[in-house]
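Help wanted!
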Amino acid sequence: MYKYLLCWRYLRARWIALASVVSVTLGVATMIVVNAVMSGFQHEMHMRLKGILGDVIIEARSFDGLPDPDAHLEQIRRQVGQELASATVSVHVPAMLSFQVAGRWITRPVTLIGIDPATCAQTCRFAEYLQHPANRRRVSFRLHEGGYFVRDPEGGPKAGLRRGMELAGWPWRRYRARQQLLAPTPEPEPGDQSSQPQKQLQDGRDLKPVEISAMQLATWGTSAQVALQVYETLLEQLSYEVVESRITEEGGLELLVGPRQEAAAASPEDPFAAAAPQQSDFDPAREQHTGCILGMAIASIRRSDGSEDFLLLPGDDVKLTLPTAGTPPKAVTETFTVVDFYFSKMSEYDSNFVFVPIDKLQQLRGMIDPQSGVRFVSSIQLKLKDPARAQWVRDRLRQVFPARFYVVQTWRDRQGPLLAAVQMETAILNVLLFLIIAVAGFGILAIFFMIVVEKTRDIGILKALGAHSTGILGAFLGYGMALGAVGAGVGLALGLLLVWKLNQVADALGQLTGHRVFDPAIYYFYEIPTRVEPATVAWIVLGALAIAVLASVWPACRAARLRVVETLRYE
Amino acid sequence: MKHPEKQPLLKAQNLHKAYRRGAHRVEVLQGASLCVHPGEFVAVMGQSGSGKSTLLHLLGTLDVPDKGEIYFQGHRVDGLNSRARDRLRNQSIGLVFQFYHLLPELTLLENVLCPLMIRYGYWAYRWRRRQLEQRARELLAQLGLDHRLHHRPQELSGGELQRGAIARALVTEPQLLLADEPTGNLDAQTGQEILRLLSCLHRQQGLTIVMVTHDPQVAAVADRVLQLAQGVLNPLDQKVLWRAAG
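Answered by r_m:
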């Protein structure tokens, strides 16, 4: 009984000991916050990654794709039919997106994805990230009359205004059509040059830097060398050429492209003029080209207050230049009408992906065998009834589809390096933070020793009154545990409070320092995502408790071993 | 007050104890023997450093002799293991020190209850709590400390502290009370008060007391006085004592 009373009294009387657990408190609070944020980010990232990925992905090794997806699906159903919820096919291909802003052509490398609107929405989270409510319910490549989201519906109260989005749809298209009739291609203003940072060669050609990250290449499933070849072919068709190329250390590609020398001399006008289809009877105010869904970051410029300006709106036309199937690939150019935006808040995706109907893409690329009508696709995505079975399904399918021709992966395998990197980051952070708590443990150790020295006489008295060594040991271990419990408990409360009010805290810090802690312009989230996992929190608290107890073992043993006579002899 | 027919409560034979102080080996006790019968009040007198406290620690089973035997109620106790000695000390022996040695974090009442808390486990104590507290309160009231129950030791005077310490020693209803210079740290008047209290307890309740002191005046309260010199105990003539006490 005296143990508990003493623990309690010591806890209340010794403020210095409580000071020693402040570090435990801070450590626990920090670990909880960091884990919640990391877990929040990870969760958000998983959601985004799943935007274009099913649970299991079967891809062709060949750039031309795999033939006859229906036969493949039949095969898959035979193997893992009981696990399968839905499946969809897609075509992935690198392409060039060109569009006009204020009379100037802007060209960007993108990943063009042909999707089947009906099955894609069932298999991936694709539809959730579209910006028209009707498209979320049912994906369509038709332009809508209006009603596009003027603010990010998932953004909460902080979501910024999307300037111009209220016009998007047919009204915008009609307006643009009228404008284009009045002034077909306005001359670029001389002052406009400065707004576009471009290098110039000595011969006066404009050069444009193009960067393709390693991740982007990974989504295409090609190496930098192959991508370079593809670009060279593509650009040749556009009378452009790669002036400089460099493969970065991460495996990405950096290009400097410009008009071909002779082309620049011969035809300084729009390189797309020749490629543009001559459709005299096409009325842009009433009709649309084949629809395409753009990653929103391609078309928008985000400000740091969270609002956005748009280079393009649903209703605008864009040109896509893509390589055909076959060897060597040839470039084809087609005009599409932007019908919606894809906004997953995963900037790699939002700034890269352009979605078009798969039929159109297969047709453009020549992925339909003219004799048999067999279609080719790049990948087959499977959604499983139980996502946890993905590995089993993968292994089963690997037996059927030989690795020489097919890549069968779970979505985690597919995003392996990225997920592993995040996991690694979390692990390292946790180790570092736990070391902080361990340091706190040494603080407890030191202060405990001090307390034992200070309490030597009291320990002697207790023993003189008949307390056994194990009792003294228990009392001091209990005291250590109580300190740890107070530290971890306060840390837990503080951590959860911080997680709960994290965004307010970040805002307050931002105002205090004048430096935004969380800039929505960078992250695409309006708020810091957090996710408290009870198991993680429990581990953190238990770990802190264990460290406090461990730190008190040595001093407690010392207290227990003290000899009564020596403690009482001198005053 | 002799009880020759009774078995001695405490008997020590030929106790030896040496300490190592640096390179020197100090022979503190060299064959001290002692016999205390129930109801006796024995004082042990000796110069400072003569080994009085060491003797008391040996008698109180706080330490073990190098040589010699100690019997408590006829049972040999110096060879017992530490747990058995702890139990004996807790149940049968009360200890009073020169510097009171109350725990500063606990109130007076809690200090007095401390040996009982040590004796019983958590639930056993909770079960008897009312009864035990009642006993401690009564004891404190008897010693005139009923108005100080919830005071911390630092709020009490020296005399009150020593009375509290005596209450703590008696709350377990021990057969033997060992007092180590109980008046050593008190002024003369308070010291007298404590001595009166001890002799009163001895006379009224028949408590067996062994007290060590260097002061002949203090020792004079006892029935029997022993002199500790050169590591052995010798009876001291009362007359010598009276003379020494003046």
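OP: Thanks! One thing I noticed: The interface with chain A takes residues 53-54, 57, 60, 62-63, 82-83, 86-87, 89-91, 95, 97-99, 101-106, 110, 114-115, 117-122, 125-126, 168 of chain B (CB under 8 Å).
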